[in-house]
Amino acid sequence: MELFERLAVALALGLLIGIERGWHQRGRKEGQRFAGLRTFGIISLLGALSGLLSDKLGSHLILAATFLGFSMLVVAAHLLEARKTEDYGSTTSVAALLTFALGAVAALGFLAIAAAVAVVTATLLGLKPVLHDWVEKLEQKELHAIFKMLLISVVLLPVLPNQTYGPLDIFNPYEIWLMVVLIAGISFVGYFAVKIAGTSRGVTITGLFGGLASSTAVTLSLSKMSRDSRGSANAVLAVGVILASGTMFPRILVEVLVINPGLVMDVVWPLMIMMVVTYGGALWLFLSSDRGKEMEPVKVQNPFEIMPALKFAAFLVVVMALAELGQQWFAEEGLYTVAALSGISDVDAITLSISRMSNQDLAYSVATNGIIIAASVNTLVKGLLVVFIGDRAMAWRVMAVLLSTIAAGIAALLLL
């Protein structure tokens, strides 16, 4: 029965990929398709039977020889089809070879691995139009930014020394650069989400995902746009600013989770309450606004360059040193002061610093208070930016929601 189960899984995986390939080639007449639903099922069974024979006879030469022969058949079929249709795409041919391998892997007992790879393969095959559209939207500077991101994370990070230096025993090159990579990675997600979705589709998309890249940048951009807008358009812009501010709270939660998972249960409720209040205010404004008007695209700058990353690393070291000194010299009040001052310009650095300190001797309650203070100050600063830069009608909407968010955060600290 176990062998029958393996063969059944192999057949199911082949049919899964065959469904996608058959749908992709549905416009061709019978006999003109390279391979469809039935063929991919048979290919997977061929791989499974070859794998079973090799396993039972104790020689993988049978599997290797069968795969070699099948590969030659696939290449010949591909060349004949390309000669007739002048379509030299090799996706289906490669998918057929992979299906054979998946059948063999399933037959050898690695069912979970085979199933996971088959699902990912079918998904990638089905996402061809979407993936091609993403590539077409990708600019050269963004491609270079991706390579730089990989350089600092995959190449540079592993070779940095993972030990502390300096009189305060806080300068750890590996940990600091890991934090830089974390912030750059979160910003990348937000930037490319806006890039793929398109900012012209609405400020709500920009607010939600642009806030991951830079909520302050989104706030400034939408505030400037409000000067030339009136009425319901400003309500929509206010929604974008509020959503960008609300995105800061799950962003903080992710940072805490990476640096000190044990602190998450202490900060999650205040942060979630603040997020719910913020998003609730945005939803209320969104439902009461006129969303039919086409808005001007919002500019979200490329989130990664080498110099800004180095500047953030330097700023992070300064904040870590001030937080440590504030805690040592003035106890909790000193840390809270540093948190408030840091929150004026950036909430990430102080969040990472406090999370790191709570891994050592800083009480979780003090760490939670410091993070909420920084988030509250940063939220207030965004509201003030709208007041001084944006339209007055937009400003009161934003300030009403953000002040409610701050009040909810303070109440959560006092009650929880």
Average pLDDT for all residues: 80
Question: What is the straight-line distance between the termini?
Answer: 56 Å
Strand content: under 5%
Q: What kind of oligomer do you see? A: single chain
Shape: elongated
- List the uncertain runs: none
Radius of gyration over all CA atoms, rounded: 28 Å
Q: What is the number of helices?
A: 15
For the sheet with most strands, the description reads: none
Strand tally is 0
Total of domains: 2
Give the helix/strand class. mainly alpha
Order of H and E elements:
HHHHHHHHHHHHHHH
Helix content: over 70%
Keywords: Membrane, Transmembrane, Transmembrane helix
Pfam family, one: MgtC
InterPro entries: DUF4010, MgtC_SapB_SrpB_YhiD_N
Architecture overview:
By secondary structure, this protein is mainly α. It folds into 2 domains: 2-126, no CATH class; 139-415, no CATH class. The N and C termini lie far apart (56 Å). The protein has 15 helices and no strands.
Please give a handful of descriptors for the protein shown.
416 residues; mainly alpha; 2 domains; 15 helices; 80% helix; 0% strand; transmembrane; DUF4010; membrane
What is shown here, in short?
With 416 residues, the protein is mainly alpha-helical. The chain has 2 domains: 125 residues, no CATH class; 277 residues, no CATH class. It contains 15 helices and no strands.
Write the layout of secondary structure elements.
Layout: H1 2-24, H2 37-57, H3 61-85, H4 91-107, H5 111-126, H6 128-137, H7 140-156, H8 173-197, H9 203-226, H10 232-259, H11 264-288, H12 306-345, H13 348-358, H14 364-389, H15 392-415
Helix pairs in contact: 1-2, 1-4, 1-5, 2-3, 2-4, 3-4, 4-5, 8-9, 8-10, 8-12, 9-10, 9-14, 10-11, 10-13, 10-15, 11-14, 11-15, 12-13, 12-14, 13-14, 14-15
